[in-house]
Amino acid sequence: MPFYQFDASGLVKRYVDEIGSDWVRAIIDPAQGNLISIADITRAEVASALARRAREGVITVDERDELLRTFQAHGATEYRVVPTEHRIIDLAVEWIQRHPLRAYDGVRLATAIIIHRSLAARGLPPLVFVSADDETIVAAQAEGVTADNPNWHP
């Protein structure tokens, strides 16, 4: 059973139609049986992305509110939410020094790498990290994590 870690830039495509949305929805579809995890901070980032799209007029305020409720329901039932622990922050600090990452990108990547290492230690298939940010994809791959960008799947 494949295990995916989504960052906010990838996950928001489930809720708002963008390039790569169909690909994301296919992966996350519960009927596929894929395991989907997100870093705890992704909850705030998706809420922010939805609010920004409403401010920009891409979606209405009512749509934003409905999408946020749907996202929160998915967070409680469909996603494995990984708490941000000290070891994740420590790894993020390290990788931010090696890669051109923003702080939250480093935290999400550190979360993915910890999960990736945990799966490997158990002899399970590798994690696939999903992000719509090319710099984060490059950093993930440099750290040995399989990564994919929904923007590559129009």
CA-atom Rg in angstroms: 15 Å
Query: Mean pLDDT, rounded to whole units?
Result: 95
Which structural class matches the secondary elements?
Answer: alpha/beta
Major sheet size, sense and barrel closure: 5 strands, parallel
Strand content: 5-15%
Q: Poorly predicted ranges (pLDDT <50, ≥5 residues)?
A: none
CATH class: Alpha Beta
Order of helices and strands: EHHEHHEHHEHE
Q: How many discrete domains?
A: 1
CATH topology: Rossmann fold
> What is the second-level CATH architecture?
3-Layer(aba) Sandwich
Summary tags:
Rossmann fold; single chain; globular; 13% strand; 154 residues; alpha/beta; 7 helices; 5-stranded parallel β-sheet
Summarize the structure.
The protein is α/β, with parallel strands linked by helices and 154 residues long. The protein is built from seven helices and five strands.
Describe this structure in words.
This protein has 154 residues and is of the alpha/beta class. The chain has one domain (3-152): 5'-nuclease (Rossmann fold), CATH 3.40.50. Helix content is 55%, strand content 13%. The chain contains seven helices and five strands; from the N terminus they run βααβααβααβαβ. It has a five-stranded parallel β-sheet. The mean pLDDT is 95.
How are the secondary structure elements laid out?
Layout: E1 3-6, H1 8-11, H2 21-28, E2 35-39, H3 42-55, H4 61-77, E3 79-82, H5 86-98, H6 103-121, E4 127-130, H7 134-142, E5 146-148
Parallel strand pairs: 1-2, 1-4, 2-3, 4-5
